[in-house]
# Entry
Amino acid sequence: MTDKFISIEGIAKRFPAAAGGETAVFEDLWLAMGRGEFTCIIGHSGCGKTTVLNILAGLDTPSAGVVIVDRQAIEGPSLDRAVIFQSHALLPWRTVMGNVAYAVASKWRRWSKHKVEEHAQKFIDLVGLTGAERKRPAELSGGMKQRVGIARALAIEPKILLMDEPFSALDALTRGTLQDEVRRICLTTGQTVFMITHDVDEAIYLADRIVLMTNGPQAVLAEIVENPLPQDRHRHDVHRHPLYYAVRNHIVDFLVTRSRSYDDAAKNELDRRRVPVVRPGAIEPVIAAETRVGAPARPGAARASAAAADEGRPHDSPGQAWAG
Amino acid sequence: MSISLGWRAAVLSVALFVAFLLAWHLATRGAGPVEQMDPEYAKLMGLTATQGKSAMPGPFDVGAKLWEHVKRPFYDNGPNDKGVGIQLAYSIARVAIGYLLAVAVAVPIGFLIGMSPLMSRALDPFIQVLKPISPLAWMPLALYTIKDSHLSSIFVIFICSVWPMLINTAFGVVGVRREWINVAQTLEVGVTRRIFTILLPAAAPTILTGMRISIGIAWLVIVAAEMLVGGTGIGYFVWNEWNNLSITNVITAILVIGLVGMMLDQILARLTRLVTFPE
# Structure
């Protein structure tokens, strides 16, 4: 990782435990993200993904550690970092235009009303809500509400877009369409994105890198999966890519078994500052029956067959590289 | 039945009203000559004794009186004989002044309590003790310190309207959804702008509900307060007519108090609907 646009450096979040002392949701968490990169974080509920996102947004403060964005430690929320909330969080007493314009006017406080609305209109058009400007959130479908949320976040032209399961409340069809649009918009604008999701397919379709987080408490970032799919991917044929199921199985395996059985020994073995980067290879032979469960970043299956998919890239350990 | 629920309810309401008037009329009409008595004595005793007529006026007496008041609401024949319109105007003015003062005090303090856990805890014991005090218990103290009966009744209206608004405002502000506050925070919205663009619109329905409760209480209390301080107002009018033994006027006043109370409540209900947002 040469360009550390966002750098999470040793953050922890602890809560006072019932029996005195403290429970750590996560401890000593390190992660770097490059400019223009789309990072997804996957993990089970309660592992602290949302806390990481809230800390990035500045809505929550870490118990230890810092987050550096664009060479500056973050101190509270900022217009540089826009959040798309799972519950869309629109202001119900404002219209679509009102909601987007509110964000625009917050960023450019000296702009005239006309200029604010003109700017907001651009982003309402971008998410395909032209004609619905005067509607209130209550008159919109779930998908349209989330579009407003996206328009509001993009309208302030943030350096980073933070998304907390933005599509999880939507039906499958709407989710697909919105994923397409978010991907198109982020690619054309070169937007840096950090997104939480539960949906493996969504992560593979959208992300450049997928961060796998173990279960809490004491959750850790177990590994970073580099998405082998080409930038130019399409929803309708992405699953036909030869490496699609390798990535998918790798992540599902992690979620089903390894996220749970990641024990203390494995955590001790893990270099938290350099989370192992994995690049799953070709289709995995049989399910990882012989994979030692709980081993950090040792996806046996992926590794064993990685040579075929690695397309001659020299690696000490095929399919596995170290971050940093 | 194809007739709408609204129409059926209206018909039933009218029927109930007519039945009530009929029962009232039957209960208060004269039962004919009770006994023979000396005409001079009968004249002295009046219809109550001679015809068995109830001292309670019937619906027609009240109707006639009401019509009289409607025709001449604003006459002024000196301190003891003013039109019902003038008395109502006094009462409404007192309620309006006391109530608006209460809004001006309760809403900002409610915001303070809602936004600051420290203030919320610090002020809580005062509110808990002051809230259950009957507003009329303040009257002697108000008369002693303010030394003006008119201002004292305004103060009593103020003190009774303040609590529901204060508590509802604080409750509404505390209850503003975390996600809306998060939106404001990520947009770096300052405190003042946050109050006016997020907290106020989000809490407005709850605040208005408190204001609606307050106006109801204020209208209840003004009648009692004016009975105490006297001079002018619809409360004084009721008590004065009781002293005149004019039950017809008392009933008329009761009816008018109810109508005005309903009107005030409806105004606040309209305002509440204006600020309520669908979700």
Summary: Residues 191-229 of chain B form the longest helix (39 residues). The mean pLDDT of chain B is 91.
